[in-house]
Specification:
This protein is α+β, with helices and mostly antiparallel strands and about 100 residues long. The protein contains 2 helices and 4 strands, in the order βαβαββ. The protein has a single domain, classed as Translation Initiation Factor IF3, CATH 3.30.110.
């Protein structure tokens, strides 16, 4: 599975494009973020990627979890989002205005 690491300074549109592209090709991607600002950028990117993919009949879903990683000799807590694509025909009917 491909991994995207998001920083506090990451551009959300660039991250969203990367997420959407990998989901189109592989159907699954792991996105990692450390810190509140990086997590915020990740969530905005997921929302934007969802909008891109919906135009193609693809929905995304993700499962966040905490993982521990050794970075520069220090143990850090990483928020990991495992993101998967789901085709809209496999979902319940879409209600406009709800969860946009």
């Amino acid at each position: 599975m491909k991994v995207i690491k998001v920083a506090a300074t990451s551009r959300t549109s660039s991250v969203a494009g990367a997420i959407a592209g990998i989901l189109r090709d592989d159907g699954r991607v792991e996105v990692q973020a450390i810190g509140a600002t990086a997590v915020n950028q990740t969530l905005k990117a997921l929302i934007t990627a969802r909008r891109y993919l919906r135009l193609e009949g693809i929905e995304l879903r993700f499962q966040p979890k905490f993982i521990d990683a050794l970075i520069k000799g220090k143990e850090r807590t990483v928020i990991q989002f495992v993101v998967e694509s789901v085709y809209s025909s496999d979902l319940l009917p879409y209600a406009p205005g709800f969860a946009d």
